[in-house]
Amino acid sequence: MNQPNIFDYATSELSQDAFLCYMLAFGKEKYKSDLPKEYAVAHRFLAKCGISEKEEILSVERQIEHIDVLIVTTSHILIIEDKTHTNEHDDQIIRYVKNIRSNDKKFSSDKKIKVCYFKTGDYVQGYVPSAEQNTLSQKDCVSLKRDDMLGLLENNCTGNLIFESFYQRLNSVRERIKACDDTDIMTWNTEKWFDYLYNALQGHKFNIEWVHNARGGFYGCWFDWHDVAGGEDYKQIEVSFAGGKTLQVKLCYKFSGKNKEMTLNSKSLLKDLQSRVAKGFKSANRIGKTTTYACKIAENKSDVEKFISNAS
User: Fold this and answer.
1) What percent of the chain lies above the pLDDT cut of 70?
2) Separation of CA 77 from chain center
3) How confident is the model at residue 126, as a pLDDT?
């Protein structure tokens, strides 16, 4: 029977924090015999974070030192930075690691620190080591996405309503994306666009964010940056929506200078860049710090694919 799902109402990151704590609490030794399936799920999650399944989970805490979820095992401290549709900011993970290492009274200094960047919403990237390489190495931080969690729960949630509900909530997103396969791009929802662009741009340096404006906003996707005459030449895809469906897909070639004056003095450069653009793009010359020097409205997926690949 199709029942109401609590996670259709409990959609915040705090609710997701609570689920992670609930799931991982079953990893304590006292649940090993009576609740073996839940116990196994908790320890498989540890394994995904680079911690042996054989380690005992000693404690599960939420919002300690501003950390979303903090797990202490036999020999590790696991920091879980939990995100749905937001991203890591202000070097959060670096600060959390430093706080734990500097607090010997509260945390055992002999335990190794691992970090899980947990992201169930639209995903671009997880933790990327900053200049402070010694604070946390890449091998000690794992990013787990929606598909990772679906794989963990897919055959291991039967009989636990909370596990099943969380799985169904994530799976409904996967099904909405799948439903757009082989359909016209103008029928695509936001989730499908993010999934498509993320996969289509593998191998490129890129970023995808929601941009707010007076017209309601759009998904902005930026990629293929090149240094040109002290500024940057790059591509931008703008996808706007109405009623949950695609309204317009705009393909743009952009130039960004350090200031408006630099761009004003780069008219000859912009003309040269325009001459290299594929046929079908309209030249644009509205000058600002950032200038769209050529653009086109995409009519189908092929237009987008050619723009990404630089094909004519």
Assistant:
1) 86
2) 24
3) 42
Residue 257 to residues 206, 230, 267, 274, 275, Cα–Cα distance (Å): 19, 7, 12, 16, 19
Residues facing 292 on adjacent strands: 254
Strand partners, 154: none
Single pTM value for the model: 0.81
Contacting residues for 126 by C-beta, under 8 A, at least 6 apart: 88, 117, 119, 141, 142, 143
* pLDDT of 205 above 60: yes
- Please give the angle made by the CA atoms of 245, 251 and 255, to the nearest 5 degrees: 140
68-81 pLDDT, tens digit per residue, is 999 999 999 999 98
Write b or e for each residue in 65-96: b if 16 or more Cβ atoms lie within 10 A of its Cβ, otherwise e: eebbbbbbbeebbbbbbbbeeebbeeebbbeb
Between residues 289 and 66, the one the model is more confident about: 66
Greatest alpha-carbon span in the chain: 74
- CA-CA distance, 287 to 143, in Å (whole number)? 40
Q: What are phi and psi of 282, to 5 degrees?
A: -90, 130
Q: Does residue 239 contact residue 218 with C-beta atoms inside 8 Å? A: yes
pLDDT value of position 148: 94
